[in-house]
Amino acid sequence: MAPSTASSTFDSTHYFPPRRRVVQACVNCRTRKTRCDAAQPRCGLCAVQNVACVYKDAQQPRIDHNTKILLERIQMLEDRLLSSPAFAPQADDGGAAPASQLSTVQGDQLPHQRQISKVGHHESSAIWSDEGPGKGESIEPDVQIPLSHTANANHVYSWAIVRELLADDERSADATDVFFEPQPPESADEVVETPPISQTWRLFQAYDLPIDAAKCHELIHTFFAEVNIFFPLLAVDSVLATLEDVVRIECQDGSNNETIPPSRYALLLLVLCLGSFVAEGCSSIYLSDTAADGDAKGRHVHDALWGKVALLLGHIATELSLQAAQCTMLASVYLGARGRVSDSFYWTHTAAIKCEALARSLTRRGDPIEDPFRRLYWLCFIYEGDFVSEISITLPSGLAKYEDLIPYPEFSKAQQHSSPAASIQVPASESPLPPIPPSPLAGTREEVVAFQVTTNAAIRRFLNRVNSVVYDNKEQYRAARANYATWLLRVAEDMWAHHTAIYRNLPGFLLTSLPPSPPDAASPGQQLGNIPWNVARLEGRCYAGQYIIHRPFVQYVLLNMPRFETHPCRDEILKRSRMCFDGCCSFIRVFDVEPANSITCLFATGMVTFTMTMILMIATVVPPLRRILPEDVEQAIFFGTRNLRRFSRSVGRFEWHLGVLERLDSARRARMESQAMET
Fold it and tell me: Where do the record's region annotations for Disordered lie (predicted)?
């Protein structure tokens, strides 16, 4: 019996419900319940029967969104199965086209095949597909941050050549596990990990906190001068209004039963805490500092203030409001500045979840999105992205789903007073605090801050796309394909063009460092610029993008060493690998400055420095890569180790990574000596 006898009686329309392919069918094929190949101008069946071929949309039943997605994915699977050579002998003899052409109908593609995720407004969608014979594959547009990726230090640390040089008998912990291990009791920074517990969360009702209203006013001024330039979340009028209410309730009128919401009170405490941290010099990290010195100068006012904040964070953690999200974000900033990575990551994730819930509520109702939430959203987006680029132990918060719906912040004088608490007015005669004099360059500083936040957010969004396209674990099947190198070259070229376009269009003052001296009031226009640490961060993101775009070429060389010399794209791959090495060396030099500023959290910068230094060390023992290394690669390796040692003065767990670099450096020098003797 012929094998096709049973299959010839199989009526697919009896088992499969009408799906998307019915829309593609012409009226004649739909009437005959025959699968239509949707050829133009006439399908195969109509051409054989010599009848008119009319395409008309069928009346489809209304289905919910989830069912539609499920049916579309079933359709994609069926198209892929029918395009297999195993189905070729079962093609219709009535003139129908082969089954492999059924899914190539123009103009009726799936929604997520048409709306391909873009890197920029002007980029071609071709870079997101791995073009093969007659088909393309697209990236899911809603997932901007992959659940797990290989762009982090853990992946490089697990490379075979790294394990070989380190001569580890068994697989050791990942490079980020050390941040989540319990602190040993004998460690030097034990006091930092366990801050003193305050007896009360009230500001002026504690004997262990020698602070008055004038000191609080000074710390608020320090916060807005030194911290708000990096994290412009709050308005100065709002914080001063809260302080005036606290002074009036707790100091001037003991019988007053008025209460302040916990989230608003915690915001004031966090502002004072961060202001004290900066005022005491704890944010300036020098290479000559020791861990003991850092702890000694940190056991002061900000420790006691943080103890009060800790008493309120439990209540705030369950609150869903703008002020509660601002509290959790500032708590993460403070803990990151202290080098407590795991705690900072926890509160960053909490802030991101709150922002996602607020964004979902605002976009669902169609309410206007005010500037305070815009600032919170994008700062949380940047901060969470920096953490997630190295740590993948939790599910993403979903914040990236709203990046096309939340506008960038607009900084103006009118909007600096738009916080809800700013509406609480206190007469000048009753205020116990002197007003902060307006700065003649306040508008200029706000303009710089606006550009700074917008630029960092745009770069962070782009780096998330790179991680999703090139480094997503679900996309690693591409590496086994024969055309992986050509696809990687095409993607890297388009991504690099977009990345360089961002920096070509940057205003010049963002990359111009202001002098440390006070600005000249006679010529304020000449003082337009940025603070040095922000300039270093912008330049660092530029070189980090150059490195992360071209790092896959270095790994490609390592994985294809036996046949790389005869590879048809050998020269182009080596050229891209050289760009990766140049990005590593430039990034390391940018952050070779004294002092480093721990307010922005040195975790992400330190992990990238650790990874780049490892890659430069590895390249010195691989002959194809050694020939294209920069001439000053040894100096860059030395600077990278020194930078990480400086960062370890803030993030003490970097001592573990320094030990890895020392072992790796000794092993690669021994390998280089043996290679020299063999030649």
Answer: 86-139
